[in-house]
User: Fold these one by one.
Assistant:
Number 1:
Amino acid sequence: MPHIRKNNVAGKSRILITCAKGIPPYLREEVLALGFPVLDETIAGIATEGTIDDTLRLNLLLRTAHRVLFLIREFAAPDADALYRAASEIPWEEYIAPDGYVCVTSSVDNPTIRDSRFANVRCKDAIVDRIKDKCGRRPDSGPDQDRAVVNLYWKNSRCSLYIDTSGEPLSRRGYRKIPLTAPMQETLAAAVILATGWAPGQNGSGHFINPMCGSGTLAIEAALIGLNRAPGLLRDNFGFMHIRGFNEAVWDELRAQAKKTAKKALDCRIIATDIRTEAVEAAKKNAATAGVGHLIEFAVCDYSETPVPDSGGIVILNPEYGERMGKIKELESVYKGIGDFFKQKCRGYNGYLFTGNLDLAKKVGLRAKRRIQFFNSRIECRLLEYELYVGSRKNKNAEIPYG
Ligand SMILES: C[S@@+](CC[C@H](N)C(=O)[O-])C[C@H]1O[C@@H](n2cnc3c(N)ncnc32)[C@H](O)[C@@H]1O
């Protein structure tokens, strides 16, 4: 089936970029930096506008986004029959090949719908019935999100139908073959690093030190950011590739450009350590898969033994916080020890602690300069920033209780 560009696909539309709660401020900056307008900001997304070809660029370059949704049509539908009727009027045959495959995902809040799966089925029926009617054959459908994905957003009687141009969420970069326990989502790790302001080569951002690295997500994302390497280069499948009219030449050009603008080396050190050998082995493999294994210095050691070079930078730890691993009582001494480690070994650095337990964070015993809210799945978390002064200011943050 030839991929024919149709007007509907080529024209401009609203693009909704979703992300985890807490991340919109960083996603907003990314979207603006790529030259797209920000039309709206919600607690879990940014609205912009562009063509479907623009979604290729967004999928390739955004670090903190989950999904890039391209609006097809908005309409009123008080119930599922009305949804079916309105969705049947959309020329789906221009988007999805009759010999293709489609998955419908949704977010539904309508008084007539008790189970959102029913809405998905009605929407899917409208799509495949329409294509059968126009082309004589209906595409396959099912739950797999690795081909064409249509997203239904239905609130009261307002429906929006989007092409999910990402397919699988963008947090699945493809490098984390070994996740271990309680890994940080890749997009969250990227947002956390952007929140620190670490930008190697600028303002003397310095080294990136990551004790308690686990599967290595923070160190790997730091290497990708440091190299200005597009996270989407790591993936070979996106939803937009399964939409008719996919312009492969545009995609190839975008990838080539992204490769050209990426740096080959870093002007700082990235050091990642963990007390568990299997964590460091997994982190090494994940970093190698991401193509940045040679840029990260790994070691197996207690966090307090992590080498911290003299010239400054950031040191960032994501210890367990008792929700998913470990016990809170046992963790108290770990958090206290992190405070000692910051004071004794990390002078001249900005220290960061990412945790979902603020009571444990108090055990660090240092006053946080900034407390930035994030969400790790449903758990409300904080990224706490500690300025760890050198020389005459070194005592300024020495024994101040957490404020
Ligand atoms: C919450 S996990 C970090 C997850 C990581 N951010 C990721 O994305 O995979 C905490 C890590 O701290 C490590 N850890 C616990 N106690 C430690 C210690 N005393 N020294 C060094 N690492 C430690 C654990 O082995 C675990 O890998």
Number 2:
Amino acid sequence: MTRASQAPDILSPEFAANPYPSYHIMLEDAPLSWHEGMQSYLVSRYEDVSRAFKEAVYTTDNYGWQLEPAHGRTILQMSGREHSIRRALVAPAFRGNELDQKFRPVIERNSRELIDTFRAQGSVDLVEDYARHFPINVIVDMLGLDQSDHERFQVWYTAIIGFLSNLSQDPEVAAAGVRTREELAAYLIPIIQERRENPGDDLLSALCAAEVDGTTMSDEDIKAFCSLLLAAGGETTDKAIGSLFKNLLEHPEQLAAVRADRSLVPKAFAETLRYTPPVHMIMRQPAEDIEIAGRTVPAGSTVTCLIGAANRDPRRFAHADSFDIFRDDLPTDTAFSAAANHLSFALGRHFCVGALLAKTEIEVGVNQLLDAMPDLRLEDGFTPTEKGVFTRGPASLPVRFTPS
Ligand code: HEM
């Protein structure tokens, strides 16, 4: 039996408990393998995963079955000119002045409101009571939707992520995703129509008015994009905040360094993205036969790119299994752009459009949390564990601190 065939299966409980030993075996002995249950090739090495993200032959047609039934058609599955126009319609809201002047105050307020619910208590679960809510609250607020609907959005986004990560094709999870598409449309389309009549100073109104080269977004386009935002911007940033605090709490000397010098927050975020990426795998569908790791993968196959493995490829990163915010092979000035050398926001045309929004949320959130909890420490005797195979982060993170 080869070492590769002894690696815990990607759909097994052992893998879910700790995927890194399997990633290591794949990186060394099986850089390309076929997974019968997922009907997909698995690709683990940095060089192969980054090529898959950058080269146009690796299409995103997979999102037609992986996401469209739950979201509708979104920019993730578009390519060429259609994709670049759609991206140009939505991208301005997530960078530069729009982000800094209009949305930073929204981010600061939403973080503060959550922290105010527990700052006097002296204990909190950072995942359950902060990370799970913060990014969704921000998006709902940016879109100008009703604050009292936050809980409904939580339910919808959990169902959408369930659909996307349904590697074992559970029919109930699939049905909940499709139901969400209908519920979200019934909720959002009337609001979009109302915003067209009475525009406000919010992201939804901006999307209604956006125009590039004579192209505008239909009600269905906007609804699908909002649905994508909930999943792409909620689940990911949620996991990133939880993982960043888990990593720092497990490395108290690095936590002390970040607390003393807040300019290290982006470094801690970049290293968290590399070491414990919120999204562990992304799929692609090559349009032609391609060669990966010396073997031919036929056109139309599904290729699962293992970001969690590639970010720990020893060919690319020194002491890849150590969390080290001071590492010199992960430049922070490019870490939140398409020139990043970790793969957690992907690369190329579909590079995460919300990377700078995520960075702003993390900077604001981490700074406010460190200010509110000067002596933050894990609950006595608690050892954090991670949850999730497709997306992954700490299951919970109970901490103690002196109340303020
Ligand atoms: C730490 C946080 C985040 C991570 C790790 C992350 C990760 C990713 C990844 C891996 C992709 C590429 C998917 C692919 O190529 O198939 C992506 C795309 C995307 N992300 Fe993010 N994301 C984060 C935050 C956000 C936020 C805050 C937003 C917006 C609210 C957002 C919106 C999007 C959108 C719209 C796309 C599609 C871009 C396109 O197809 O051109 N993301 N993200």
